[in-house]
Amino acid sequence: MALSYKARRRWSLVILLVGLPLYIGFAWWLTSLLPDLPVLVELLVFVALGVAWTIPVRKVFYGVGKDDPDA
């Protein structure tokens, strides 16, 4: 079932205000478990974690910045 435009806007706010800080804390904790890595490898880990959170929620954010298509 597809989400309406209003529902996607609300969920995107919840994800950004609640989910993203939780994910940042999780990523911080996860990277603290890693041993000392070279700078470039560590940069790749941070880039991968920075992109990874967007994959499951991309459908929610799709078209939210545009005008309401139902209006």
TrEMBL record:
User: Where, by residue number, does the polypeptide cross the bilayer?
Assistant: 12-31, 37-56
InterPro entries with a match to the protein in the record? DUF2842
Pfam families given in the database record: DUF2842
Alphabetically sorted, this entry's keywords are: Membrane, Transmembrane, Transmembrane helix
**Key word Transmembrane helix present:** yes
Its domain of life reads Bacteria
Q: Under which name does UniProt file this protein?
A: DUF2842 domain-containing protein
Organism name = Vannielia litorea
